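ARCHIVE CARD
Drawer: 12
Card no.: 0347
Subject: one protein chain, sequence and derived structure
Cross-reference: see card 0346
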Amino acid sequence: MIVDLVTDDAGLAALWSEWNALWRRCPSAPAFLAPAWLRSWWAIFGTSRPLVAVLRADGRVTGLLPLYHLDAKLLPMGVGISDAFDALLDPEAPPDAASHLMTAALRATEAIRCDLPELPEGAYLRNVASPEGWQVQEHSGPPCPVLSLAPCPSIPKSMRRDIRQARHRAERAGGWSVQRADAASFPDLLDKLIRLHQACWTGRGEAGALADPRVQAFHRSAGPDLLEAGLLRLEALHLRGRIAAAAYALLTPGRIAFYLGGFDPAVAYESPGTVLLAHMIEGAADEGRGEADFLRGGEAYKYAWGAQDRMNLSRSFART
């Protein structure tokens, strides 16, 4: 196996096309590893010091480990706003490909530590051993509740009752409809989502995930690419002549992952967030997606939908 190392912005720019081709051959990979997500992340948060280990076989890329330097550390590209990380491997890559990529990256760096947070169940990097001269520590990460959608959504009776009640209230308030963002409507619907999301968090006395202007800039930049790649679903619920809730989800063939949401507190009685989430879950099930991933965090509402925990794992490699 040949492992190349990409260590500058020019090399990274030349790699995106092959990276995207590899991504397309990995249907179970998290959306957070797609170039449509990470190109914009690197443009906004990058340090101009990438360290991407690239596995090649028969002239094409069959594996990637996208890391970068931040001070004396190695970190995954996408860290901070991504809910999952792993190596990206072709289904036909050798069984020890992830270990070769990790070893090559650690041997090439002058960093004293490599932190790998948010490794989901089944991640290749959960099983790689530490190379000579390094030791690894593991920490349990946050829960990531997941709702099974196959053969039908496993939503508890109590939540099904709440959905019916919310829909009845929305109908009595004048009816509701759902708008799905396309390339033309995305900027406006994203702005609406940002305002609704911030209103919810401000009401709790917290800043929320979109308080940093750079994070907002990331979503404005990445959104069109994600839409074009079929990885983003942004929908808004219209109620009483205005947008009452919005939700931003990432798509892979078997999964819808709910990343951001918000609703108008002024119409909380109609539970617009519940109406919209039920609509999107039912739609994902109709499309044949097998699960709805609520991503990291153990908020009570996720379990009310019937989601069951999967646990992320964090691993840290330190020089000995």
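Annotation on reverse: Residues 120 and 312 are 5 Å apart (CA to CA). The mean pLDDT is 95.
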